[in-house]
Amino acid sequence: MIYNRKVHGTYFDLVMVLPALLLFSIFIVWPAVEAIFTSLYASPNRGGDFVGLANYREMVGDPVFWIAMKNNLLFILCNLVFQVGIGTIFAALLDRGVRRFSTTMRTIIFAPLVIAPVAIGVVWSMLLEPNFGMVRQLANTVGIKLPSQGFLGNPDLAFYSIVAVGAWNYIGFMMTIMLASMQAIPRDLYEAARLDGSSAIQTFFHITLPGVKGALILCSLIVIVGSFKTFEIVYVLTRGGPGNTTQVLGTYIVESAFTLFRPNYAAGMSVVVLIVAIFFGSLQVLTSRKRK
Amino acid sequence: MARVKIDALRKSYGSAQVIHDIDLDVRDKEFVALVGPSGCGKSTTLRMLAGLEDITGGTISIDDQVINDLDPADRGIAMVFQSYALYPHMSVAKNMSFALRVAGKPKAEIDARVKEAARILHLEEYLDRRPADLSGGQRQRVAMGRAIVRRPDVFLFDEPLSNLDAKLRTQMRTEIKRIHQEVGATTVYVTHDQVEAMTLADRIVIMRGGHIEQAGAPDEVYNHPESEFVASFIGSPPMNLTPAEVADGGLVLEDGTKLPVNLARFEGLSAGDKVTFGLRPDDIVLSGHGMDVNEPWNSKGTVNLSEPLGGETLVFFPFAGSEWIAKMLKPRALKVGEAIDLQFDLSRCHLFDRASGKRINNTK
């Protein structure tokens, strides 16, 4: 298209971005600003007392907040290892190793991603149901003894069960990003490495990994931000229990706002999540700019 | 010592056979160029030699050891790729030393070998740079350096100069020749550029459709092409070729032109035989240019086009129903449409059997 100065220009550009800007302002900026204000007051309507940073001070002394924060950080760690790690290994296998049925395998691994996390939570809560769930029945059939409360009711296993369900959900996504990146590595490099006597493992670490560094950083940032915002799967599977062992900031915010009726405190926690998300989001933008 | 022997080498992809039982013997320290048009099987042959492609049939041996089932790294070969295939995240030094590092060689030995290769290739000042910071020629030298540090018995080159511009290609050609003389390894070099093959190789192997058409020294394939295909492929510009029929006292071309070719010089010709008459552009001169012509035959022509190349000029003129080229070594300005007197040196002509395309040999 020929660029026409009379038609195009600052005003034209503004008009074109206005709808997106409007939607972004209404659904993202405004609620964020509202949350910040709400967090500084004692009751939901701003008619209440201005309490300044009192909600934030309370957070510092709230053990459940710190359990949720710790779980969020643990989620990041586990998801990095399982989602990005296993996703990368699957991608490497499909890229270099598996020759037959690779499209079928790719589809199977990717499939869970198209299911909504809430639906996944419901399906897995049925599968993991302590008395009649399919997992219990399978375990009984092969003679494996499972804890009586099942996976989700056991304080030692609940958290890792959620991690496993999350991994099942997102490994396909990570694998797809990593696979696309791996397939962009010229085949000549692998052939040169073969001639240089590099083993499969050496080739993975010396050729593949450095070649997918950008995608790896992208996946890691997606996982970090995603893990910090995690809510649906935890809420549907355990609601933060048993005994707050799986509590994350997302579920604790909802519980504070709608069960304990403390929306201002919940807003404060939302602001904390927002700040962390903005920090990692900026990192993501910075890295992608650097790569360009 | 590294003698490469290829026996009845065959390659098929499913039912499609792309290499047809080829035999080739590359002597120790010899520089052999595989040339041919796209799809002739030269790169496939090289890749089978490297171990990057499975062999369907036949054997490849280096110094009498069959290497068919050996890993690429265990064959004692190094390869320079068309794309250079340099590891983008590694410095020049790391690229060159990669094979030695994965083999667990001592650091002192690695450093010494990299320094030595860098000296040969004039890369000393670029050792810390990454491939992205190098020019095409420098990258090419790094790719060669990576091969040199391994001290292979056999060097394989897969169209290594095709990504370079014309000037750099000429420079690198000289460089490759110098390095071959200095390193002295047996070399198999794949190219589609016959000039590259002629200037670099001790022996040229011309391939077509998965077969070897001819293997011989550059002057041999140039002066005694075994087939019409080789005649048209080797030489720039290529040999002029036109259909002819054997008659009493010479050849008759399709437009009726009679050429008084001394047919007694050729084996087994009889009247009525259908042949292809070939003459190199170098063997056609402008009359009165004082060149020695053994069996001159005079003709008149008109200039279709002239291409002055500095030291010589290519003159395109219509002859026997097609466009022929003459190479003038003492150029003068020629205008399109200008009438010219030409002298064909019929003692230098080549004849090919029209049905088989094979050379009709000269009598001894």
Automatic annotation (TrEMBL), chain B:
GO cellular component terms, semicolon-separated: ATP-binding cassette (ABC) transporter complex, substrate-binding subunit-containing
Keywords, ordered alphabetically: ATP-binding, Nucleotide-binding, Transport
Pfam family, one: OB_MalK
S-adenosyl-L-methionine among keywords: no
InterPro entries hit by this protein: AAA+_ATPase (IPR003593), ABC_transporter-like_ATP-bd (IPR003439), ABC_transporter-like_CS (IPR017871), ABC_transpr_MalK-like (IPR015855), ABC_transpr_MalK/UgpC-like (IPR047641), Mo/tungstate-bd_C_term_dom (IPR008995), NA-bd_OB-fold (IPR012340), OB_MalK-like (IPR040582)
GO function terms (MF aspect): ABC-type transporter activity; ATP binding; ATP hydrolysis activity
Presence of keyword Ribosomal protein: no
GO biological process terms on file: carbohydrate transport
Ranges of residues in domain ABC transporter: 4-234
Highest taxon in the source lineage: Bacteria
Matching PANTHER family: BLL2173 PROTEIN, MALTODEXTRIN IMPORT ATP-BINDING PROTEIN MSMX
Protein family according to the UniProt entry: Belongs to the ABC transporter superfamily.
Protein name: Sn-glycerol-3-phosphate ABC transporter ATP-binding protein UgpC
Organism: Halocynthiibacter halioticoli
